[in-house]
Structures are given as structure tokens and as C-alpha cells.
Amino acid sequence: MLAIIATGVLAFRAGGSGGAPASARPSAAASPSASGPPTTAQIYQAVAPSVVTIQTTLPGGGATGTGVIANQAGLILTAFHVVKGGTAINIIYADGTESAATVSGSNAEMDIATLAPAGGPDVLVPAVMGNSGRIAVGNDVVAIGNPLGLTLSTTTGVISGLNRTAANPDGTKLTGLVQFDAAVNPGSSGGPLINARGEVIGIVVALANPTSAGTFVGIGFAVPIGAALGSTGPGEPGPAQ
Which candidate in 99, 111, 153, 181 is catalytic? Predict the structure, then answer.
């Protein structure tokens, strides 16, 4: 685990190497009710098939994180620190399909990377990209990821602040971040932050903790989706809708 303490902010890496996760996988997407906004359960059922587990082989060990399928070509958005220094990257899709992947673009200063898988499931389910410029403090959000190896977990909360600053492990600053209070922990890095319409509005990259524990105390950070999509150069998924 790679973690730093800088003004109480920790960029977090997933814990440990290991085999494919064994938890239950969603099998189909649900359609939101026409009578009102989708429930958290409906958002989870719709977005979870777009969320992947990322296993990175590192010299002397490994790490696990989260990613989200960003377009029909199958490119995956994640946090750069999940794959930084990896000698091999393995993607596990929600249906259990596995594929090797390579980094197709990255921006270390924003802690964002795009991955190009060698293969994928028979049915690819890209997430719907939202408009992070429309979010406001108090908006409801949902996070989906693999905290502490508990695959495809979901939590809920609200946007707690905008334009926040956090620290990269190398001491450089992450700026313009969305602060939220949906619980995230090591392994959640790279996962989607989702609005009440089921659209991805951010990529989870960090948490704040005043101790060295590296666990969640109510403050998480995400790179806004517009910045994430535009940050990685060649191979980027394209602009947010």
C-alpha cells in the first residue's frame, strides 16, 4: 500500500495481490422508473455492469483498484496510482470475464489513466458520462468500487464541497476536486462517482484522514469527469455529455 499524509489527505492504493474476486456479479441493467428519479438500487443495477476490478502486478507485490468502462470501444477510466509502475494489468469485468490491459493514456498530475483491454465480455456496457459542471454542493451521489477487496460495493452520500485540493503521493497537488461523503476505502480508487440520474460525474482518487490509518473518515475526493476525460491525451474516451 502506498499512502502519504499531507494535510490529512491520503491518495490510496488498493491492497494486495490475489486471485479473481468471488463475490456475486450483477447480470443485467435495470431501467429507471418513469414515475420518479431512480433509486440507489436501480442506479447500482444500471452502473455496476460498467465497473471493473483492476489487478496490477508490481515489483514485489500487487495492488487492486477499480475502473469504469467509458465508451463503446471499451476504454477504461481509472486512477493513475492504481496502475503506476505495474508490470502487468488484469481487468475483471462484472460478469467475471478477464482480460489483460495496457495504459493507453495517463496524467499523473491529475491521477487519471485510461486503459485499453486486449479483450472483453460478449456484451460491453459503457457507463453514461455526465456533466460535472452541473453538480452542486448537497447533490446526492453514489460510489461503486472494490473497497478492501469487497468487489462491487456501493455507498451513498452527498457532494460536500467543490474545487478542493489534495496531495499526490509524490507531493504534487491534485486540484479542482469534488469532495463527497459516500464511503470509500483502499480499493475504491478509480471507481465512478455517480449522480442521482445514474451518470458518472467523477473518478474517485483520494480520501482524507488525519492519521496514518488510510481509512475513510467521511471525506473523499474525485476528479470531475470532464477533467478526467480530457486529461489523458491519445486514446482518451472523449468529452463528457
Answer: 111
